[in-house]
Design a protein that fits this description.
The chain is built from 15 helices and 27 strands. It has about 600 residues and is α+β, with helices and mostly antiparallel strands. The strands form seven sheets. Strands 1, 3, 5, 7, 9, 10, 11, 12, 13 and 16 form a ten-stranded mixed β-sheet that branches. It has a five-stranded antiparallel β-sheet with strand order 25-22-21-26-27. It has a four-stranded antiparallel β-sheet with strand order 17-20-18-19. A hairpin with a 2-residue loop joins strand 23 and strand 24. The protein is elongated, with a radius of gyration of 26 Å.
Length: about 600
């Protein structure tokens, strides 16, 4: 239910290099001979060439001398989720550099597919969770003469070649970089990331912003799922390196080298409580601070067989501790609001509200499934029937005309909260199928599920996905969508919803609404009314409205010029962009603005 972005690729070797970055570069530790170095060199050289060709806007760096290590940089920046056509690149302030000159260099983790980052002590790198500075200023030594007059962004050989001087580097898998080998710390970087030490610069100033990124560091990387109509697009799934690289590139283009990022790489839920929020807050030097959680909380023991899936309780404990320390959650939402989105409990709580148009929903307790799933299914169907009668009675007492008479509900869906990518949704059309769905959903391996939603079936022709960005109830224009994507599920596997087609409005009109423009306009008008009401409801849930929300509205043509709609989903920040080309730029820009929403607290 949550597919998400963008970088135009010119690197045909992207997949291999992306996997290198996702694996944290552990492969390079497996051999120290010339063969291993040569293979890394060949991959780096090929990708660096393509990276340089890509340079519509400068950004990535790359390596030198044909050796693995820090020098392999640049590919991830070019191929994993980065966005072209962003803000102007930061200024180049250097005109020439001499061999041996010590300079300040802004390190960017996204530029190194081997994934090395700076730590102050070895234990921060080889004990998990691994925590260190992934973006920020450090020092390096120029290793070949450089003159700005020869610089061409499209030719990486004209970039500045440096050797990193920071003494301790680790990757997410706990492997240490051999800094005693010059080839391992040699890299080419863009001059915009370099400042000479003899003049005041951003390197000596307090960062405007410190971000703490909590991300996956397990052996199995997060699959970005970029392919297909139901895929996340070029940006990849939110816990993937693609997505994080894209966001970090946007931050650099928006702010220049005026921020720092501290990252924690976790291998499982048990590592989350080991992150010390008060100590971390002490390390964050920025004028503004924030935390971003690139993980998927679930109601299972660790993993549920997928990377980046973590125990919701342990993630929430960390989020609350961080927020209590003054480290604001900037992605996806503050803990209590994120819980509202992820739990999906709003479906049962609001299904009788006539103005919000939610399908009738009841919650079946886990204990009922354990004792007698067939009885639980029968009781759930009865409960939906009672809710149907209640809805009809309430609507009638309020004078709301409906063509639903309070009839029994004999088909629907069963689904879970705390679930991602439409993994836990099952259709049913009788008691036996609902019994199977309840058992299947509630008794999965490692399950901590405490309830299963049972919901009435809604017939619809199309699902309209509305992206609302930076809403303000005092400015009605901001409640209108920045984009609407029209989708239709096209396959079911074992009762589960899988692939879908997506359309623009014109194709939706032809394929879904029989070219009845008035009916589609009626659906869009009703959807806007419902979305405005949902935003008003969200104001009660949080004093700050979410930066981005995607509202999925189901629509059916009910007759000439007429349509019927229902609310399908409220999707949190981080939901799939569904092929919206401008989506990453639009959403990331809003996120960056939100980083500066609150002033930093200067006193204890």
């Amino acid at each position: 239910s949550h597919p998400g972005c963008v970088r135009l690729l010119t690197c045909t070797g992207a997949s291999a290099c992306a996997m290198s970055h996702a694996n944290g570069g552990a492969w390079q530790q497996s051999g120290s001979g010339d063969g291993a170095a040569t293979n890394a060199a060949e991959m780096r050289a090929a990708c660096a060439e393509r990276t340089a060709q890509y340079m519509a806007a400068p950004g990535p760096s790359n390596g030198a001398n044909g050796r693995p290590g820090k020098g392999i940089g640049g590919l991830a920046a070019a191929s994993n989720g980065m966005i072209s056509g962003e803000q102007r690149p930061p200024l180049i302030t250097v005109s020439s550099l001499a061999v041996g000159e010590v300079v300040d260099v802004f390190h960017r983790y996204a530029q190194d597919p081997n994934g090395y980052f700076m730590v102050q002590h070895s234990t921060s790198g080889f004990l998990h969770p691994s925590i260190g500075w992934t973006d920020g200023w450090t020092t390096a030594k120029v290793s070949e003469p450089w003159d700005a007059r020869n610089f061409q962004p499209s030719d990486y050989k004209t970039w500045v070649q440096i050797q990193w001087l920071h003494p301790v580097w680790y990757n997410r898998r706990g492997h240490r970089l051999d800094v005693n080998n010059p080839n391992m710390v040699t890299q080419r970087v863009l001059p915009e990331q370099i400042r000479q030490r003899r003049a005041p610069s951003e390197a000596q100033q307090q960062p405007r912003l410190t971000l703490f990124h909590i991300r996956w560091g397990g052996e199995q990387p997060v699959n970005p799922v970029t392919e297909g109509a139901g895929g996340w697009g070029q940006i990849g799934a939110t816990p993937s390196d693609n997505y994080i690289n894209g966001l970090e590139d946007h931050i650099f283009r928006a702010l220049g080298p005026t921020y720092e990022i501290i990252s924690a790489f976790i291998q499982g839920s048990e590592e989350l409580p080991k992150i010390n929020a008060p100590l971390l807050r002490h390390l964050m030097k920025g004028q503004h601070v924030g935390a971003l959680y690139f993980l998927w909380p679930i109601s299972y023991q660790d993993g549920h067989a997928f990377p980046a899936y973590v125990d919701r309780a342990k993630l929430w404990e960390l989020m609350v501790q961080m927020e209590g320390t003054g480290i604001h959650t900037r992605f996806p939402h503050q803990s209590h609001l994120y819980r509202i989105f992820a739990s999906k409990e709003w479906t049962a709580q609001m299904c009788l509200h006539p103005l919000l148009r939610v399908p009738l929903t009841t919650m079946v307790a886990r204990q009922a499934l354990a004792l007698d799933p067939a009885k639980a299914a029968a009781n759930a169907i009865d409960a939906l029937g009672n809710l149907s009668k209640t809805r009809a009675a309430w609507n009638g007492s309020m004078g709301i005309a409906e063509n639903r008479s309070g009839a029994p509900i004999m088909k629907g869906v069963a689904k879970l909260g705390w679930s991602w990518e439409a993994m836990d949704v099952r259709a049913w059309k009788n008691k036996a199928e609902l019994t199977d769905a309840l058992e299947n959903l509630g008794e999965q391996p490692g399950s901590f599920v405490d309830y299963v939603f049972v919901q009435e079936w809604v017939d619809f022709d199309v699902e309209m996905r509305h992206f609302i960005v930076e809403p303000d109830l005092t400015k009605p224009q901001t409640l209108k969508p920045k984009k609407i994507i029209y989708t239709v599920f096209k396959s079911r596997e074992g009762g589960s919803f899988r692939n879908f087609d997506r359309y623009d409005r014109e194709a939706c009109l032809a394929n879904c609404f029989k070219n009845d423009d008035d009916a589609l306009a009626d659906a869009e008008r009703q959807a806007q009314e419902v979305i405005s009401r949902w935003m008003e409801w969200l104001q009660a849930q949080s004093h700050e409205l979410p930066v981005v929300t995607r509202f999925d509205i189901m629509a059916k043509r009910s007759g000439p010029g007429k349509a019927f709609i229902m609310t399908g989903e409220l999707t949190e920040l981080g939901g799939c962009f569904l092929g919206w080309p401008e989506g990453p730029r639009t959403v990331f820009s809003a996120m960056v603005r939100s980083f500066f929403r609150d002033p930093i607290k200067t006193s204890a």
